[in-house]
């Protein structure tokens, strides 16, 4: 380590060449002088020069931080942000996966589904397999949303009982 610096001006003159080489290797010739000045300004503004005996390690840490900040800033500037539109960009499960789930539901709950009234079964399958909303189901069948809710409640009660009996 070097001896403690007496004045900030002497410290700058002693460390300037080393710091300039450091920045040139990392960010290039054009940006290096500006970063040297910024590093010295940060050390001076922080008040660390007057408080510590050996300011060179503090200066080097400041220089390293400046390089990190610069690279982060460049990465942010180069990033392109696109607005997210949930109606168009939402992830959809693959068709094959949906088909597998459909087959599993039909296989596991086949006896339960067959025991349901035809309209209840149809509403349940429209909701679970076609993933239609209650409003869409009601509009398609010409019934109220309240009726769809009642049919779904009946179907879900039957499914829960069948599941409990099967896996209990």
TrEMBL record:
Keyword flag Transcription regulation: yes
Domain RNA polymerase sigma-70 region: 14-76
Domain RNA polymerase sigma factor 70 region 4 type intervals: 112-159
SUPFAM superfamilies: Sigma2 domain of RNA polymerase sigma factors, Sigma3 and sigma4 domains of RNA polymerase sigma factors
Record key words, sorted: Sigma factor, Transcription, Transcription regulation
GO process annotations (BP): DNA-templated transcription initiation
Gene Ontology molecular functions: DNA binding; sigma factor activity
PANTHER family in alphabetical order: RNA POLYMERASE ECF-TYPE SIGMA FACTO, RNA POLYMERASE SIGMA FACTOR FECI-RELATED
Family membership: Belongs to the sigma-70 factor family. ECF subfamily.
Record's protein name: RNA polymerase subunit sigma-24
Organism field: Sphingopyxis bauzanensis
